[in-house]
């Protein structure tokens, strides 16, 4: 018999990860702040064995790890059938993780727990589509895909566009536990579980948490619903995985994203989805194939203003997951990946209908948000209201996303000339895209 949605087993994996984080946190407290310790977190065999079982070590056998993940996911998510391609690709990610050396105890366990939740969530979505066939008939109408470089316009996307009366952005907890409409008690249990998980992770990496948010009841990067992408490289550099991503067909992932949205909107008031992620820049054609009436909002920003912040954020994350992150590798890898994303998007847009993409330069949003956002709504086919004006004023009055972690490019072995050469004429065309 299939486990009913909202059962106690659905939150067991986040509870286990919270226990692991709490133990690691206590073991690190010696009078200094947690982030001072992170680069030198030792491997803890005891905690690894507690999470992965007897015989586990820092270098795992991929099939053993995959089987453990799958067995656990089927207990709470549903049977492991209905999407063999997903499982095959997921096995590839597990193998790449297992071939990566230098994991800390906390890093390995948190990475595996994230995969556990992702796998469990996908099995749940497949099961729900099997049990509720009418889900496939749910129309996802004219969604807005926000495609940006990382660290760009998230305040406006999540604080204004995603909160409009007729818009809806998926919340972090919904992307962790995608399900049909739940009784209030079970819904609050899931929200509490996700809140506690990220709160405790934030105790170990407060700068990372402060920089990216990760609030259970707030909109977040929809990469949480995409099984693969550069987000996995924030934890560790996996060269084989990077090369695999560069050649991968992402069209099936956007079909899976559509299936998740069909679950989340079933039985709820209709709204226009707002889906934000840097991953979208690599996949404009896949988006329009899965969502033929989608509007793609491309927020343009000079890469030189983004790269230092992104490298700093990656260093913070990798310091929690790995022993001794390679800062120069972080800089070189992200510069190459972002340049490739921009070039891929520029090529893809040529094949798309002109009206499919709405361009807006970030400098215009930052300099004149009260003037730019109503114009942007008009281009998106949405209506700017007093409610939107109120949300914008809250964003402008708030502290925004912290940028105290930003670093000079030189810390990551890069110069302004390197970045300018990598991105060619792209920074120069941004000023010609202002909305009027």
UniProtKB/TrEMBL annotation:
Record keyword Transferase present: yes
Q: Does the keyword Transferase apply?
A: yes
For this chain, one GO molecular function annotation is: transferase activity
- Gene3D superfamilies registered for this protein in UniProt: P-loop containing nucleotide triphosphate hydrolases (3.40.50.300)
User: Which keywords accompany this UniProt record?
Assistant: Transferase
**Matching Pfam families:** Sulfotransfer_3
Mind telling me which PANTHER family this protein's record contains? Answer: OMEGA-HYDROXY-BETA-DIHYDROMENAQUINONE-9 SULFOTRANSFERASE STF3, PAPS-DEPENDENT SULFOTRANSFERASE STF3
Protein's UniProt name: Sulfotransferase
Q: What is the lineage of its organism?
A: Bacteria, Bacillati, Actinomycetota, Actinomycetes, Glycomycetales
């Amino acid at each position: 018999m299939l486990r009913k949605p909202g059962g106690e087993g659905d939150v067991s994996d986040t509870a286990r990860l919270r226990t692991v984080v709490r133990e690691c946190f206590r073991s690190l407290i010696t009078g200094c702040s947690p982030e001072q310790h992170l680069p030198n977190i030792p491997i803890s065999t005891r905690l690894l064995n507690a999470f992965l079982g007897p015989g586990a070590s820092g270098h795992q056998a991929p099939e053993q790890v995959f089987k453990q993940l799958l067995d656990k996911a089927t207990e709470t998510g549903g049977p492991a059938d209905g999407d063999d391609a997903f499982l095959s690709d997921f096995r590839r990610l597990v193998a790449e993780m297992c071939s990566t050396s230098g994991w800390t105890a906390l890093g390995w366990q948190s990475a595996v727990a994230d995969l556990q939740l992702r796998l469990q969530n996908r099995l749940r979505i497949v099961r729900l589509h099997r049990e509720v066939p009418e889900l496939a008939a749910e129309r996802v109408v004219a969604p807005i895909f926000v495609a940006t470089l990382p660290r760009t316009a998230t305040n406006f996307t999540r604080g204004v566009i995603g909160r409009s009366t007729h818009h809806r952005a998926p919340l972090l907890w919904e992307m962790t536990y995608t399900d049909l409409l739940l009784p209030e008690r079970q819904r609050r249990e899931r929200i509490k579980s996700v809140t506690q998980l990220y709160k405790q992770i934030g105790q170990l990496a407060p700068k990372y948490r402060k920089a990216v948010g990760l609030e259970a009841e707030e909109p977040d990067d929809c990469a949480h619903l995409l099984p693969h992408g550069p987000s996995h490289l924030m934890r560790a550099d996996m060269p084989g995985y990077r090369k695999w991503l560069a050649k991968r067909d992402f069209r099936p992932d956007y079909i899976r994203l559509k299936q998740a949205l069909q679950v989340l909107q079933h039985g709820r008031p209709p709204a226009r989805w707002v889906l934000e992620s840097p991953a979208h820049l690599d996949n404009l054609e896949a988006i329009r194939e899965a969502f033929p009436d989608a509007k793609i909002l491309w927020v343009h920003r000079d890469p030189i203003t983004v790269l230092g912040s992104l490298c700093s954020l990656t260093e913070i994350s990798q310091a929690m997951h790995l022993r001794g992150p390679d800062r120069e590798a972080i800089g070189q890898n992200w510069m190459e990946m972002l340049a490739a994303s921009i070039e891929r998007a520029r090529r893809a847009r040529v094949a798309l209908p002109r009206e499919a993409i709405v361009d807006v330069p970030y400098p215009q949003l930052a300099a004149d948000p009260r003037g730019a956002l109503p114009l942007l709504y008009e281009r998106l086919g949405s209506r700017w209201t007093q409610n939107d004006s109120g949300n914008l004023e809250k964003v402008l009055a708030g502290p925004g996303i912290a940028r105290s972690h930003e670093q000079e490019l030189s810390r990551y072995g890069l110069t302004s000339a390197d970045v300018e050469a990598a991105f060619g004429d792209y920074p120069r065309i941004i000023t010609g895209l202002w909305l009027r």
